[in-house]
Amino acid sequence: MSVFSNALSALNANAQAIDVTSTNLANLNTIGYKKDQISFEDLVHQSLGSQINNQVDVSGSSALRTFRQFAQGSLETTGGNFDAAIQGNGFFVLKNSGGQQVFTRDGAFKVDASGNLITADGDYVQGWNAAANGTLTPSGPTSNLVLPSSPVRAAQASTYFSVTANLNSNGTVGSSSGDFQTPVSVIDSQGNTHQLNVDFTKTAANTWTYTVTIPSADLTGATGTTTQLATGTFNFDASGNLVTSGLPTNGQIPIAITSLADSANPINLNWNVLDSNSRPLITQFGQPSSSSSTSHDGWQSAQLVSVNIGDQGKLDANYSDGSTVAVGQLATATVVNPDSLVALSGNQFAVTAATSAPVISAAGVGTQGSVVGGALETSTVDIAEEFTHLLTYQRGYQADSKVITTQDEILQAVLALKQ
After folding, report:
1. Is the predicted pLDDT of residue 213 greater than 70, yes or no?
2. How far is the CA of 244 from the CAs of 52, 203, 282, in angstroms?
3. Would residue 154 count as lying in a domain?
4. Mean pLDDT across 235-251
């Protein structure tokens, strides 16, 4: 009877293998699908005397083990505003209708009536939304990603400005070579632009005074052509570097603009003379005085034109003034042992007791893969490979069926001899 049990176990194994292969083929075009691979194993007879002469009594085959292959699928450019694909490790993070955190490689997202970024099944895409002041901090707890609800972006008053410039060390006190001016634009709370003027005047060797002025027409009750907002002195060392010891804390010179003629709120500015690495933005070298750039953090109001997923999963809002503002960022998660995840419907996965704690962060951080906007990851199913497997399992099934019929014929012959 062992012949029948061996053949039956092989029939079951090949049937299961055919079932897995058919599932793979059914998901040939499923976005981000990771194929299953089956592993056959021998079944060892567990009765007494199973080992005779150090030989293991093998009693058939099993195909109970399947492995999800988390290989990288090829990326296909779609141009869809809310399409995204992961290149490398990681999953997109979702929250389903039951509040459960789940993961997927399917980045075909859309937007619901409330502005939430969701999957085709209505699960919420997780990430980080920008703060009211436009600051985006992709760390800490995640939440549902929500697109801007207003078609108009409110104006943001400038809070700082900077000037990157070189002052001519060969400039002569009292001459044009010892004087340099550069304009700087700032924005008030109503979105109106004000043109400040920063005037540098050499007063002694390695010493320049600065004066920041604004047109008096921009202020209520101001007289004259311009109104002074701030003044002070910059000192440079023998190498032309700005001496920072006498500067205000963090190299920020406070400048307040009050009583604006357009009735906007006062503009409280900091003039940043150091960059984010505490390096001076103003130097004194033997070159003609010039400014290479000026910047500020304010913006005018503008119409929202479109929103799309950009590089590293940032939600970029595009406005009518040509500016692009990141209003959110997709979260990605990596799992050390992804094969321990359990597959759910909708091409999603959930953690199990055997799964290591997922590491959630922005794309491109640590071992997280990068996110490519306007693209989707194709299925890892290879149709030629799957059909080859299908034929192999089919022939195995036929061979095992033949074993059963042959053994049945032998038994029938034995019974006939007895009769």
Report:
1. yes
2. 88, 18, 11
3. no
4. 91
Does residue 150 belong to any structural domain of this protein?
no
Instruction: Among 256, 274, 300, give the residue marking a domain's end.
Output: 300
Residues 268 and 352 in one domain: no
Residues 213 and 253 both lie in one domain:
yes
Question: What is the biggest distance separating any 2 CA atoms in the chain, rounded to whole angstroms?
Answer: 132
Per the structure block, which two tokens stand in for 18? Answer: 């055919």
How would you classify residue 31: left for phi > 0, otherwise alpha for psi between -120 and 50, otherwise beta? beta
Is residue 151 in a domain? no
Same-domain check for residues 96 and 36: no
Pair (294, 172) in one structural domain: yes
- Boundary of a domain, candidates 241, 266, 300: 300
Full domain range(s) for residue 177:
160-300
- State the pLDDT confidence band at 236, using cuts at 50, 70 and 90: very high
Strands 160-168 and 282-285: parallel
In the structure encoding, which two tokens stand for residue 353, read together?
Answer: 């007791």
**Any residues with CB less than 8 A from the CB of 276 and at least 6 apart, and which?**
none
